[in-house]
TrEMBL record, chain A:
Source organism of this protein record: Australozyma saopauloensis
SUPFAM superfamilies: tRNA-intron endonuclease catalytic domain-like
GO biological process, one term: tRNA-type intron splice site recognition and cleavage
InterPro entries: tRNA_endonuc-like_dom_sf, tRNA_intron_Endo_cat-like_sf, tRNA_intron_Endonuc_cat-like, tRNA_splic, tRNA_splic_SEN2
UniProt superkingdom: Eukaryota
Domain tRNA intron endonuclease catalytic, residue spans: 290-369
Keyword Lyase among record annotations: yes
Job description of the protein: Constitutes one of the two catalytic subunit of the tRNA-splicing endonuclease complex, a complex responsible for identification and cleavage of the splice sites in pre-tRNA. It cleaves pre-tRNA at the 5'- and 3'-splice sites to release the intron. The products are an intron and two tRNA half-molecules bearing 2',3'-cyclic phosphate and 5'-OH termini. There are no conserved sequences at the splice sites, but the intron is invariably located at the same site in the gene, placing the splice sites an invariant distance from the constant structural features of the tRNA body.
Protein family (similarity comment): Belongs to the tRNA-intron endonuclease family.
Presence of the UniProt keyword tRNA processing in the record: yes
Listed name of the protein: tRNA-splicing endonuclease subunit Sen2
TrEMBL record, chain B:
Any one Gene Ontology BP term: tRNA-type intron splice site recognition and cleavage
Name of the molecule in the record: tRNA-splicing endonuclease subunit Sen15 domain-containing protein
GO MF entries: nucleic acid binding; tRNA-intron lyase activity
Statement: the UniProt record of this protein carries the keyword tRNA processing: yes
Automatic annotation (TrEMBL), chain C:
TSEN34 N-terminal domain sequence ranges: 5-72
Similarity comment text for this entry: Belongs to the tRNA-intron endonuclease family.
Keyword tRNA processing: yes
GO cellular component, one term: tRNA-intron endonuclease complex
Main EC class the enzyme belongs to: lyase
Alphabetical list of Pfam families matching this protein: tRNA_int_endo (PF01974), TSEN34_N (PF26577)
Record keywords, A-Z: Lyase, tRNA processing
Protein origin, superkingdom: Eukaryota
GO-annotated biological processes: tRNA-type intron splice site recognition and cleavage
Subunit structure, interactors included: Heterotetramer composed of SEN2, SEN15, SEN34 and SEN54. Interacts directly with SEN15.
Record-given protein name: tRNA-splicing endonuclease subunit Sen34
Record organism: Australozyma saopauloensis
Protein function: Constitutes one of the two catalytic subunit of the tRNA-splicing endonuclease complex, a complex responsible for identification and cleavage of the splice sites in pre-tRNA. It cleaves pre-tRNA at the 5'- and 3'-splice sites to release the intron. The products are an intron and two tRNA half-molecules bearing 2',3'-cyclic phosphate and 5'-OH termini. There are no conserved sequences at the splice sites, but the intron is invariably located at the same site in the gene, placing the splice sites an invariant distance from the constant structural features of the tRNA body.
Length: 413, 117, 241
């Protein structure tokens, strides 16, 4: 749940990855100057202190894989927060990005007094407004059609005029809101970029739903499903139904590259090798989709980008310079296997380019060269520890190509 | 969690549907090779202006990871529903992504009259 | 009028040069694409003029409905020029004369002559398909069938590459309507990518259209005249979730 971007914002998101550095735990290296010999001594002491201790280890976050190997999720709140705040890994199963279901439901069912605004609520308000606008437009069009057949009487004319005025007001309001929030990511809520209005509207809609009955949130008649969620004695939620779900590439990156998690299946922890085979699936060939995606994911993560799922835009992943709460993603990445069979049809490609252009992102095609089947099989024969897997991934080569539509007539003018 | 379970949770707790049930589907001779689930339920409000109130909506869930589908598969979905209820005019297709996002699409039987957005 | 419109085939393009023919075609539901440079504004290509360029599917539909005839460009032009080219004339200029007015010797090709020329220069749709695509593949047949299916239901069809589909279908004249359908034609058993569905769904919603999958229905294949019978599903974003 996001509040106004306070001074805590940069503090909360200061770690781009869930890795603790020695200087964070044991203190920064003291400033040293050549002229001052005393400072050399304090530097030597501090270095000795750091080197004599083991590198700091945060407790490994527990990731649970389900029976079918379809989902990898983090159930405990602390672990979820750590993975989200330090690198924006994963997505809440019942939220748009950051896990915020518990707080939203508590607010919806009136179990808490806190007034917080979530991005989901902002979206709901926006969709509600659009629906209302469409209702007005439909009525206005009916009156227009009627007006073509016969002359409208006074009441109808007045009604028509009021409808048109309301629609214009809504359109104007929407334009100012859009221009003010041009920088903000769609999936994230109120921050200094967002206008005051949205915050107020969300508060109002939530308050209304607590007080009145309307078809979206009937409170006096709780849904059966909602009633089972609440513990009648304490009047709180029995359990948090939401978990942080990680994609395969994310889990593998956290285990293989950062060693920041421990993966469990049926209560026993998985070795790196076992996780690798679980993610690989049934097809053991070098152009397996998981391998291509992982190579590209690892590549962009190592360059400092935050790479997340690109489903919303029909591509493989989208790249954020820092993270979702800060700015909109800049790049949309499509992973293509280098060679004949990786390429998609032209009409499909044009559609993707158009969608990506429409949301003002740059389409990046990443061509991945795979090792041969023999090289691949050879590595898979050995025990797959971190070394062997690194050797495997080093065999892949990545090339990025930016695709941008050029309109010669427009450029001339 | 299975596909059915994931879709059920998303419909009930995120999209606020009620009375959602998962249906068992007989594997027919021409079965689709991809995993799918069939659900039905009541949305919180009419999905389309021209619907009747309280219309029971059918939902087919597919994993986005199983990248492909075909016209014959969609026809099979309609037939699976036909064995339980009269053939609906449209079905909701739920695509479950591995990051827990579920996107919903309407699949209408036939070419719809284009409407205003 | 009842006369067949000549559809001139130059190389791989099917062109219509006469303005009256273009107007007739529009009334019949064939829109085509203007592809010639406008003499008044030659250094831009946003607004173009005659000739009108038709796709093979539009031409095939016209031929099947006996509204047009495909003619070989070279032979057609030669014969038209034989009739209607300017005749040579020698004029003697006397001293002090600044200009000469001559009779208009450019004779129009009348309807009967035109019909004769067309019959003479005719080529068949299949021959053209072979020339364009190498052989008559099933995909082209299927696209033709899809075109005919929608054209017979009074839809106007235009190329759909801009929207990631095979055609774009309007319920009437494209200039009058803004919301229409993007058609994607699939062969029997051909699969489509679900990620494509996401992209196309999003694109369609953004440009206020619906996406329609058109394919052969496996159950009702009419073996006699090889015409595939078609079945459609329309896909649009649900607006929630």
């Amino acid at each position: 749940m996001l509040k106004r971007r306070g001074k805590n914002f940069n503090q909360i998101y200061r770690n781009p990855l869930p890795v603790t550095l020695s200087v964070d735990k044991y203190g920064q290296i003291p400033p040293t100057s050549l002229a001052n010999p005393v400072s050399w001594i304090s530097l030597a002491c501090r270095l000795l202190y750091i080197y004599s201790h083991l590198p700091p280890r945060e407790e490994l976050t527990k990731v649970i894989s389900d029976e079918d190997g379809l989902t990898f999720s983090v159930a405990d709140d602390q672990g979820s927060m750590r993975l989200w705040r330090q690198g924006f890994f994963g997505k809440g199963t019942l939220s748009r990005s950051e896990p915020s279901w518990k707080a939203r439901v508590e607010q919806r069912l009136g179990l808490t007094n806190a007034e917080n605004i979530a991005s989901e609520d902002v979206t709901a308000v926006r969709r509600g407004e659009r629906k209302a606008f469409k209702g007005l437009r439909q009525e206005a069009q009916k009156l227009e059609q009627l007006g073509r057949l016969r002359v409208l009487n006074e009441d109808e004319q007045a009604r028509y005029k009021s409808l048109v005025d309301q629609m214009d007001a809504m359109r104007l309001g929407k334009e100012t809101a859009e221009s003010e929030s041009a920088l903000k990511d769609e999936s994230v809520a109120t921050d200094k970029g967002e206008p005051e209005d949205i915050g107020r509207k969300v508060q109002e809609s939530l308050k209304i739903s607590l007080v009145e009955e309307d078809d979206n949130f009937p409170v006096s008649e709780l849904r059966e499903e909602d009633r089972t969620l609440i513990d009648p004695e304490t009047n709180t939620l029995r359990a948090n139904l939401e978990a942080l779900q990680l994609q395969k590439t994310e889990v593998f990156f956290l285990l293989f590259a950062l060693d920041a998690v421990k993966v469990f299946k049926n209560d026993s922890s998985l070795l790196l090798q076992e996780l690798f085979y679980a993610c690989l699936g049934s097809s053991h060939s070098p152009d397996n989709k998981f391998l291509l995606d992982y190579v590209v994911y690892h590549h962009f993560r190592s360059l400092g980008y935050c790479a997340r799922s690109g489903l919303k835009f029909g591509c493989d992943m989208i790249l954020y310079k820092r993270g979702p709460p800060m700015l909109h993603a800049e790049y949309a990445v499509l992973v293509v296997r280098d060679g004949d069979c990786g390429w998609t049809d032209w009409p499909d490609f044009m559609a993707l380019a158009r969608v990506v252009g429409g949301v003002r992102k740059t389409l990046v095609l990443v061509f991945v060269e795979c090792p041969t089947q023999e090289e691949f099989d050879e590595i898979l024969l050995s025990e797959l520890d971190r070394c062997a897997l690194s050797r495997l991934f080093l065999r892949y080569k990545v090339t990025e190509v930016v695709y941008k539509r050029w309109s010669p007539s427009r450029t001339r003018d | 969690m299975s596909i059915a379970q994931q879709t059920l949770t998303n419909l009930v707790h995120y999209n606020l549907w009620t009375d959602v049930t998962v249906h068992d589907v007989q594997e027919s001779a021409e079965s689709t090779p991809y995993r799918f689930a069939l659900l039905s339920g009541l949305p919180p409000s009419k999905l389309d202006q021209s619907d009747k109130e309280g219309l029971r909506e059918w939902v087919i869930a597919r994993l986005l990871e199983d990248r492909h589908s075909s016209m014959s598969e969609i026809e099979q979905f309609f037939r699976a529903i036909e064995s339980l209820a009269p053939r609906p005019k449209r079905v909701t297709l739920a695509l479950v992504n591995d990051d827990a996002t579920v996107t919903y699409y309407f699949v209408h039987d036939g070419a719809i009259k284009p409407r205003q957005n | 009028m009842g006369d067949l419109i000549p559809l001139v085939v130059n190389g791989g393009s099917i062109l219509v040069f006469e303005l009256s023919h273009v107007k007739r075609l529009r009334d019949l539901g064939i829109v085509g694409i203007l592809s010639g440079t406008l003499p008044k504004a030659p250094q831009q290509n946003v607004f173009l003029g005659l000739p009108l360029r038709l796709s093979i599917y539009e031409a095939a539909w016209l031929v099947n409905q006996s509204l047009g005839v495909l003619v070989d460009g070279l032979r057609y032009n030669e014969q038209v020029l034989n009739i209607s080219s300017l005749k040579e004339e020698t004029v003697e200029l006397q001293g002090g004369v600044e200009y000469v007015v001559t009779e208009d010797t450019y004779s129009q090709v009348d309807d009967e002559q035109l019909a004769k020329i067309c019959r003479d220069a005719e080529i068949s749709v299949d021959a053209l398909m072979v020339r364009l695509f190498g052989s008559v593949k099933t995909r082209q047949h299927l696209l033709s069938a899809a075109f005919n299916y929608f054209r017979d239901r009074d839809y106007y069809l235009m190329p759909g590459l801009r929207f990631g589909g095979d055609f774009v279908a309007y319920p009437g004249d494209p200039l009058k309507f803004h919301s229409h359908l993007i058609l994607k034609v699939l062969e029997q058993k051909e699969s489509f990518d679900l990620l494509q569905l996401v992209t196309s769904g999003r694109l369609a919603t953004a440009v206020k259209k619906a996406w329609v999958l058109v394919g052969e229905s496996s159950t009702q294949r009419n073996k006699q005249n090889q015409k595939p019978s078609l079945h459609c599903f329309s896909i649009e974003w649900a607006g929630f979730g």
